[in-house]
Amino acid sequence: MKDPSRSSTSPSIISEDVIINGHSHEDDNPFAEYMWMENEEEFNRQANSLLKQFLFIAQIEEELWEEEFIERCFQEMLEEEEEHEWFIPARDLPQTMDQIQDQFNDLVISDSSSLEDLVVKSNLNPNAKEFVPGVKYLNI
User: Fold this and answer.
1) 122: phi > 0 → left, psi -120 to 50 → alpha, else beta; which?
2) Can you supply a Gene Ontology BP term from the record (predicted)?
């Protein structure tokens, strides 16, 4: 007679593939999938460390983005200055005392007759009281 457990219709089973209640026969500990909880404090410490590293990297990345943004703004500002004729002190202001004196001399009124014309055509009252800041004048 043939042994029914060795029939050719049943699939061959290798001992490594047999799993009972979610565990293989070689698995001595049925709680193996929960063993990470044994080192939960170490796991949390590593997770916190990784989180701190991630936050530090994110902060550095944000600072780099800000620096790049500021650099682009300065570059755009310089390009805009080149496009338009802006006042640039290093270029437009005189550099020597002689140049400053020349500009000052150009501002001085040269003849006294034009000064008298200014006084004659003036709308100011020569008899007005002297203005003193903070003092109220009453019209009497």
Assistant:
1) beta
2) negative regulation of translational initiation
